[in-house]
Amino acid sequence: MREITKIMKGWEFTGPDGTTTTVDLPHTWNARDGQDGGNDYWRGTCIYRTRFAAPQFNTASHQVWIQFDGVNASAHVVLNGSPVCNHDGGYSTFRANITELLRDENELTVEVDNSKNDRVYPQKADFTFYGGIYRDVSLMVVSKNHFTLDYFGGPGIRITPTVQGADASVQVTTWHDGEGEVSVELLDAAGNTVATGKGPDITLTIFNAHLWNGVKDPYLYSCKARLVVNGTVEDETTTRFGVRSFKVDPKKGFFLNGKSYPLHGVSRHQDRKGLGNAITREMHDEDMALIKEIGANTIRLAHYQHDQYFYDLCDEVGMVVWAEIPYISEHMPNGRENTISQMKELIIQNYNHPCIVCWGVSNEITISTKDMLDNHRQLNDLCHEMDKTRLTTLACYAMCGPFNRSAHITDMVSWNLYLGWYVPGFILNDLWMGFFHLCFPNRPFGYSEYGAEGMPNLHSTHPHRGDHTEEYQAKYHEYMLRCFKRHPWMWATHVWNMFDFAADARDQGGEPGMNHKGLVTFDRKTKKDSFYLYKAWWSNEAFVHICSKRFVERTGSTATVKVYSNQSTVALYVNGNKVGEQTGEHVFTFKVPLNGELHIQAVAGDRTDESVIRHVDTPNPEYKLLKTKSKSANWV
């Protein structure tokens, strides 16, 4: 049976300046300079080195493999002076058999390269390409007879459930190296056996199947595959899966298990303040808890393959996922092979996740050269060849018009549009949606990105486009939610972004190196008002929230108090006196006289929230964005 040992502690790291220090994994060398602005974070080759004793194993009957869960962007692995493998692509798992190279004491060297080139994606995008070994490294002892480990980092098993009335047929296909007979056991969530069979490619039936039904009921089965030689189990792997059906109707939106299931959710980048992409499982858990809190039911995992642990979380909580590769921003003729290999890894490593409904082939690549279009068509065909159960999509942006050829290659299309942020006019969103749907009524259309920058320390009683205030961000999202309600046929909408994230080329909002469109700050400590707006629209958890709490000092004779809640009635109290009560949906706005210091309380059912507003004669200058020499309105 498999024995897995992580190699995470005490690595020697030779960094950009040639100095060698001791680090623990996960690690990136761009945790600081990749987040401070200037578009000057260091990109090049650094070296990681560690020493380990060979694990105990029988050389006649076993093998030792090494597994890397994420090394950005290219890795050259050497063991005891001999090359082991090379890998291009910073977000996927790769493995290598090191049995023949092992000694009693071993030296493992990994040369990691995130330097600029024209063949490995991504190279140009609105996020930082952190260099390093930022996910787990493991040694795996397995029998020579084992489920395949070297096929694009996959698990050696593919599970394809199909709903058939009240039952489900489950095709289980396995690949193995060496000898052995495959036995398969399907188990329900309680661990009870529901079907068994033998063979490398079999179809079993689950009677009265319990469906994976999104956030309402994310039920998971398990498939236990064993490789048996002469009555002895040589290898065993357990994989969770879900039984569900879905479709997209261009006139009615997304359907899950035969019922309308409007997809409303967020996009997510994985990095953290001061840590970059070198994050822990607890941080993944925290991200998911925050996404669940607002009531989202879908996540676009942008712009690359995320940690397997996070896909597992999506399975467990019922998030519908858009998974994609970092074929982004700029087509590179020399990078086609890399797009193919990254897509193969994405599909093979993630095929069994019920949360995933579509494969994203690219993001914001719109210069329609023949080579670019051919690359897209090849990726689209590859997805359908490798996975006949899921749809394909891509994300266009404003420069890609409705008639652009790249927008009509995949099964579905979504747009990254910031109408009302980068350009004036909220109404342009309605016009764009309406025009596309008029021209292409049979083409599924969604919003893959939309948002506005919002700084929790910047405020205004008259928020306007470009001021980066928390109030304008909320105003923008208020409009967008109403807009989407007017267009219920959209297949999905994804806020950009759930969290602020690092983009070292940026310089907006008074904090260089950051994209501040998140509903939550980079450190996950501050939920912006827009977070609570989405919670008011999407969540069933009763709450009430007073907006602009950080906008304490205000001028004028009256103050506007805005309240978000998913309750139908909100009452407002000022200094203990009830000043108003409103019945409505989501957003409640009150006007109150502004004299001295106001202690405000909002009450909705048994939920309350409090804030303080104080009258001042002159505006607090700290609430206004200081003008700088930067003329950048975006990252390009």
Question: What does this 3D model show about the protein?
Answer:
The chain contains 7 helices and 44 strands. By secondary structure, the chain is of the alpha+beta class. The strands form 12 sheets. An 8-stranded parallel beta sheet has the order 33-32-31-30-29-28-27-34. It is globular and about 85 Å long.
User: How many individual β-strands?
Assistant: 44
Percent helix among the residues? 10-25%
Q: How far apart are the first and last residues' alpha carbons, in Å?
A: 51 Å
Regions with pLDDT < 50 over 5+ consecutive residues? none
Shape: globular
Please state the average pLDDT score. 97
Key terms for this structure?
636 residues, 7 helices, 15% helix, 37% strand
Write the SSE topology:
Layout: E1 3-6, E2 11-14, E3 20-23, E4 45-53, E5 62-68, E6 71-72, E7 74-79, E8 82-88, E9 94-97, E10 105-113, E11 132-133, E12 137-143, E13 146-147, E14 157-164, E15 167-174, E16 176-177, E17 181-187, E18 193-198, E19 201-206, E20 212-213, E21 217-218, E22 221-229, E23 232-241, E24 246-249, E25 253-256, E26 259-260, E27 264-268, H1 281-293, E28 298-301, H2 308-317, E29 320-324, H3 336-350, E30 356-363, H4 370-386, E31 391-397, E32 413-416, H5 427-439, E33 445-449, H6 470-486, E34 493-495, E35 501-502, E36 514-515, H7 529-538, E37 544-546, E38 553-554, E39 558-565, E40 569-574, E41 577-583, E42 586-593, E43 597-604, E44 607-615
Parallel strand pairs: 27-28, 27-34, 28-29, 29-30, 30-31, 31-32, 32-33, 38-44
Antiparallel strand pairs: 1-12, 2-3, 2-4, 4-10, 5-9, 5-12, 6-11, 7-8, 7-10, 13-16, 14-15, 15-19, 17-18, 17-22, 20-21, 22-23, 24-25, 25-26, 35-36, 37-39, 39-42, 40-41, 40-43, 43-44
Helix pairs in contact: 1-2, 3-4, 6-7
